[in-house]
Design goal:
about 260 residues, 9 strands, alpha+beta, 3-stranded antiparallel sheet, Alpha-Beta Plaits
Length: about 260
């Protein structure tokens, strides 16, 4: 082991003793755990602060979003028996009917019937049409900031598309399987979930700051650090003297040959 480097500020640890022979920094997990425990009040404080900020957002700033869904059944009510061909045709019609909801004519009729002051782009963003796998049912879902508006738009889309398909595609009207009901609560924001996420995020953020400070702190702070990083035995511990020296303690290290300069913390 080579001799340590001495500087006016104190002892500079050797790279191989601080980071290991492979050049990688060694992290004492037990000491890191102690650091987290010692700073637990800051972690709890940051968690509570973020939870309060999340609560303030969801209760006072976030706009609620409501969701209502109407359902269309893509099958002629005159069919008395269903065979494989009927199922295949129903699947194809389902895909065709989904495209109907993208036409500007359908959007325009819904806007006129409900006297809405919205653009086609806004209507498209509010509307979602889905077809569950292996079914011939279309889910017409509308999201809006008002519960009644979401319900009215979803039901109006179902009624308009039902008639539009019959008139333009020369086929029988699909059946309305289920009308949309007025939602009792918004789907967003989810108050309990968002506050809990804020609590967890605050705790993780504070813990991350503590860990980064611990990993990047290479100062010698105790006699154990002298022995650990430099292999020196501590001869004596004395308080710092003078305002310019600082508030910490100083340690005089012994390397077997001569006294090393004071290492201050």
């Amino acid at each position: 082991m080579s001799d340590p480097t001495y500087t006016p500020e104190g002892i500079r640890p050797l790279p191989e003793t601080e980071h290991g022979a492979g050049g990688e920094m060694e992290i004492d997990l037990v000491e890191l755990l102690f650091q987290l425990v010692e700073n637990i009040k800051y972690i709890i404080g940051a968690a509570l602060l973020c939870a309060m900020l999340a609560a303030a957002y969801v209760f006072f700033l976030a706009n609620p979003v409501y969701e209502a869904t109407a359902k269309l059944y893509v099958m002629s009510n005159s069919d008395s028996a269903i065979n494989l061909s009927d199922l295949q045709i129903g699947a194809y019609l389902t895909n065709d009917y989904q495209e109907v909801f993208k036409t500007w004519e359908v959007h325009e009729m819904v806007l006129e019937n409900l006297n809405l002051n919205l653009t086609y782009a806004q209507m498209t963003d509010m509307l979602t049409v889905a077809n569950p796998k292996d079914t011939r049912i279309l889910y017409i879902t509308v999201r809006a900031g008002d519960a009644q508006q979401a319900t009215d738009i979803a039901n109006e889309y179902a009624a308009v598309v039902k008639k539009y398909i019959s008139q333009t595609m020369a086929t029988e009207e699909p059946n309305i399987l289920s009308v949309a009901l007025r939602p009792n609560r918004p789907i967003s924001p989810t108050k309990t979930r968002d506050i809990l996420l804020g609590l967890i995020a605050g705790a993780l953020l504070a813990a991350a700051v503590i860990i980064v400070r611990f990993v990047t702190d290479d100062r010698i702070k105790s006699p154990d650090d002298l022995q650990k990083y430099l292999g020196f035995d501590t001869l004596a511990i004395m308080p710092s003297l003078g305002a310019g020296i600082g508030k910490g303690k100083q340690y005089r290290a012994y390397d077997g040959k001569k006294d090393a300069p004071l290492a201050k913390t």
